[in-house]
Amino acid sequence: MPQLTLTISHNINIDVINFKNLFSQIHEALRAVPNMDVNTAQSGVIQETFSYVGFDNPKATKVYLQLYWMENEERAVIKPVLGKTLLEILENNIVPEVVGQGLICIPRVRIANLGSLNQGYFIGGIINSTM
């Protein structure tokens, strides 16, 4: 089950972006991935409430797409081509909308491994209390 998260900075007006069309194109591109069940893909957008890009240039933006999957040899081979395809989708869909708002947009794509099958994962935190 692939997971896609698009993180965008607080200074982008998201009302003018067609996310449904964007993720439709991304999911279509994922069909080329060996043994990828696109029907189980989970995608979403996170808009930051605070963003600090570069040296706090108010016109600089963050447009960062992350794809997490279970990696295997077949997928490792296709990763560079898929990364370029995903970047082109962002450049053709998000960049014009962001630049049209008078902002600077340099999108980024990350494809990362969720881990190995049957691999355990645990993360814990410290209990914060004032007693």
In short:
This is 5-carboxymethyl-2-hydroxymuconate Delta-isomerase. The chain has 131 residues and is of the alpha/beta class.
Account of the 3D structure:
It comes from Legionella parisiensis. InterPro entries: Tautomerase/MIF_sf. This is 5-carboxymethyl-2-hydroxymuconate Delta-isomerase. The structure is a single chain. By secondary structure, the protein is α/β, with parallel strands linked by helices. The protein has a domain at 18-61 and 85-117. It is 29% helix and 19% strand. The chain has three helices and four strands. The protein has helices at 19-30, 73-93, 95-99; strands at 3-8, 42-47, 63-69, 108-113. A four-stranded mixed beta sheet has the order 2-1-3-4, covered by helices on one side. α1 (19-30) runs antiparallel to α2 (73-93). It is elongated and about 40 Å long. It starts with a strand and ends in an 18-residue tail after the last strand. The model has no long low-confidence stretch (mean pLDDT 88).
